[in-house]
From TrEMBL:
<comment type="similarity">
    <text>In the N-terminal section; belongs to the N-acetylglucosamine-1-phosphate uridyltransferase family.</text>
</comment>
<comment type="similarity">
    <text>In the C-terminal section; belongs to the transferase hexapeptide repeat family.</text>
</comment>
<dbReference type="InterPro" id="IPR050065">
    <property type="entry name" value="GlmU-like"/>
</dbReference>
<dbReference type="InterPro" id="IPR011004">
    <property type="entry name" value="Trimer_LpxA-like_sf"/>
</dbReference>
<dbReference type="InterPro" id="IPR005835">
    <property type="entry name" value="NTP_transferase_dom"/>
</dbReference>
<dbReference type="GO" id="GO:0006048">
    <property type="term" value="P:UDP-N-acetylglucosamine biosynthetic process"/>
</dbReference>
<dbReference type="Pfam" id="PF00483">
    <property type="entry name" value="NTP_transferase"/>
</dbReference>
<dbReference type="Pfam" id="PF25087">
    <property type="entry name" value="GMPPB_C"/>
</dbReference>
<dbReference type="InterPro" id="IPR023915">
    <property type="entry name" value="Bifunctiontional_GlmU_arc-type"/>
</dbReference>
<dbReference type="GO" id="GO:0003977">
    <property type="term" value="F:UDP-N-acetylglucosamine diphosphorylase activity"/>
</dbReference>
<comment type="pathway">
    <text>Nucleotide-sugar biosynthesis; UDP-N-acetyl-alpha-D-glucosamine biosynthesis; N-acetyl-alpha-D-glucosamine 1-phosphate from alpha-D-glucosamine 6-phosphate (route II): step 2/2.</text>
</comment>
<keyword id="KW-0511">Multifunctional enzyme</keyword>
<protein>
    <submittedName>
        <fullName>Nucleotidyltransferase</fullName>
    </submittedName>
</protein>
<dbReference type="InterPro" id="IPR056729">
    <property type="entry name" value="GMPPB_C"/>
</dbReference>
<dbReference type="GO" id="GO:0019134">
    <property type="term" value="F:glucosamine-1-phosphate N-acetyltransferase activity"/>
</dbReference>
<dbReference type="InterPro" id="IPR053650">
    <property type="entry name" value="Sugar-1P_NT/AT"/>
</dbReference>
<dbReference type="InterPro" id="IPR029044">
    <property type="entry name" value="Nucleotide-diphossugar_trans"/>
</dbReference>
Length: 399
């Protein structure tokens, strides 16, 4: 059996993180999301085919091994993406969206027992998704983002399908969004064949917005089975709770770490640093003197060397903060933090949310960044600036 992973999306809602990496390579602790998916489905399938966009081809081929790639050169939408593999799929197959995180992956084995099946996930906000209408456990139709959802069971983005799906894809046309929607073809299939809905009640997340990355990593940290320490910890370091310390990590005296926390290989912490719960240091990070990090993700090679506070934030790879750079994570009126997503202010559902910083950003000394701000990749922030608006890709921001 083959598995197909749809990973050709631009990831615009995750910008600026996706300015420098495809969406499926966002990290869950130290592991890219797509690697987490592939490692699980290898238990069930012989071959993995990944549908990618031409612009990300080099990145995927460099960072992903032992899979086949197919480029989606034309068309938009999940249906168009799946059609690109029609020539290589000749038997039943597993289909997964590349931005899905499953807490309990054993559910996949249940889908594989059926001829045609879809994962049905129970959520509190069904109107934000494709809602499943069922009849005796079989799918009747999928309604995209309805104002009045008929149920709280939504499309979980994982399918077991027969090759017949390509026949149904040929029968549909583009949606109002100008995209060929796989869900339209699934609905059409459900009129002629049984499509079983496999109910799932465990942790599931479609990582579509930046703060979802914080949510996923928080869940994984909450579910750590135990601590481990392969690094060098000096005298005078206090470690409390579950903490993973990988190889070649150095933690200097005076540092206080409150788990759950993940510290990736090659990182240097301290002296006198404060690492608070739900912090993820992916790898080769520097957190220096009098720096406090709280519920944040620092991606590969990012450095916060001295006198800084980073709270509820995401710093992409190779970011360097000048001394005294501070991120505010709470609005002065203590209302929900909103973030610009594709030109619209979207509520994050969070009272506390800091900054989302793209790769290779540099800040000068004494910079202040306000809640919910996005800073594009390769931007430069002038010393003393108060960043009170989003900063574009490569922009030089002056006070």
């Amino acid at each position: 059996m083959k598995a197909v992973i749809l990973a050709a999306g631009k990831g615009e809602r995750l910008e600026p993180i996706t300015h420098t990496r495809p969406k499926p390579f966002i990290p869950v602790l130290n592991k890219p999301l797509i690697v987490d998916i592939i490692e699980e489905i290898r238990k069930y399938v012989d071959d993995v085919v990944v549908v990618i966009s031409p612009q990300h081809k080099d990145y995927f081929m460099k960072n992903l091994n032992n899979v086949s790639f197919v480029c989606q050169k034309e068309g938009k939408g999940t249906g168009a993406a799946l059609k690109t593999v029609s020539s290589v799929i000749k038997e039943d197959f597993l289909l997964i969206y590349g931005d899905i995180f499953l807490g309990n992956k054993s559910i996949i084995s249940e889908l594989l027992r059926e001829k045609n099946a879809i994962l049905g996930v129970e959520v509190k906000n069904p109107k934000d998704y494709g809602v499943l209408v069922t009849n005796n456990g079989n799918l009747s139709k999928i309604i995209e983002k309805p104002d009045n959802p008929p149920s709280n069971i939504i499309n979980g983005g994982i399918y077991k399908l027969e090759p017949d799906i390509f026949t149904f894809l040929d029968k549909i046309s583009n949606s109002e969004r100008g995209e060929l929607e796989l869900t339209d073809a699934i609905t059409l299939m459900a009129k002629e064949k049984d499509v079983r809905v496999i109910r799932y009640r465990d942790f599931w997340l479609d990582i579509g917005k930046p703060w979802n990355l914080l949510d996923v990593n928080k869940w994984v940290l909450d579910n750590l089975s135990s601590s481990s320490n392969y690094g060098k910890v000096e005298d005078g370091v206090k470690i409390k709770g579950k903490v993973i310390i990988e190889r070649d990590v150095e933690i200097k005296s005076g540092t206080y770490i409150e788990g759950p926390v993940y510290i990736g290989k090659g990182s240097i912490i301290g002296p006198n640093s404060y690492i608070r719960p739900y912090t993820v240091l992916v790898e080769n990070n520097k957190v220096g003197n009098a720096v406090e990090i709280k519920e944040s993700i620092l991606m590969e090679g990012t450095k916060v060397p001295h006198l800084s506070y980073v709270g509820d934030s995401i710093l992409s790879e190779d970011v360097n903060f000048g001394a005294g750079t501070l991120i505010a994570n709470l609005r002065f009126d203590e209302n929900e933090v909103k973030v610009n997503i594709k030109g619209r202010k979207i509520g994050s559902g969070r009272k506390k949310l800091g900054a989302i910083v793209g790769g290779h950003v540099r800040t000068g000394i004494n910079v202040t960044i306000l809640p919910g701000i996005k800073i594009g990749a390769y931007a430069r922030i002038y010393p003393g600036a108060v960043v009170n608006r989003d900063v574009g890709y490569g922009e030089f921001f002056k006070p």
